[in-house]
Specification:
Length: 124
């Protein structure tokens, strides 16, 4: 099983970025998948998740600005981030859930495979 993030970078407030998470060793559409982030000095927090059936959940801080999606043919997960703010600056991680279920909230214990992360910096 491999989970590899890409697409991070430095952008100005109000701009957009799309993160990608290429997976191998399993079919991403049959597992719970999520994006987490960790800012310096802060705990890792859930950002968005997508369930095998397609249901999605978002953290309140990103709802309406971020969109999680997947391309089953490419076995890739995405996070479209619009209207970025300085407080979105963090290392972003892609994670695979332990099963096919669909939780109502974010818990790191629901995930057993993590990528190395991709850095997103929002600054003038």
């Amino acid at each position: 099983v491999q989970v590899v993030e890409s697409g991070g970078g430095l952008v100005q407030p109000g701009e957009s970025l799309r993160l990608s998470c290429a997976v191998s060793g399993f079919t991403s559409s049959t597992y719970l998948m999520a994006w987490f982030r960790q800012a310096p000095g802060k705990e890792r927090e859930g950002v968005a998740l997508i369930c095998p059936g397609g249901s999605t959940r978002y953290a309140d801080s990103v709802s309406g600005r971020f969109t999680i999606s997947r391309d089953s043919a490419k076995n890739t997960l995405y996070l479209q981030m619009n209207s970025l703010k300085p407080e979105d600056t963090a290392m972003y991680y892609c994670a695979r859930g332990t099963s096919w279920w669909c939780p109502r909230s974010f818990s790191q214990s629901d995930y057993n495979y993590w990528g190395q992360g991709t850095q997103v910096t929002v600054s003038t």
